[in-house]
Amino acid sequence: MTQFDLELDARGLNCPLPILRAKQSIQKLAAGQVLRIVATDPGSVKDFEAFCKQTGNELVDSVEHSGEYQFDIRKG
Description:
CATH superfamily: TusA-like domain
CATH class: Alpha Beta
Number of helices: 2
Structural class: alpha+beta
Shape: globular
Number of strands: 4
Strand content: 25-35%
CATH topology: Translation Initiation Factor IF3
Distance between the termini: 20 Å
Number of domains: 1
Low-confidence stretches: none
Largest sheet: 4 strands, mixed
Radius of gyration: 11 Å
Mean pLDDT: 96
């Protein structure tokens, strides 16, 4: 399990809100720090993969458990 520096609860939010909130939250972090996002939108899996490719951040981990999706993103 990856250690993280900041957690964003995006449960119950649908696209594009989890991405928008993640973008705001990751700006608070220094390079190398990790943002953990917990979401319930199944579309967020592809959204966060694309988000990381477009922004140069690293998707360290992506896990689904009981309808919740957890993403750990390291700021580039």
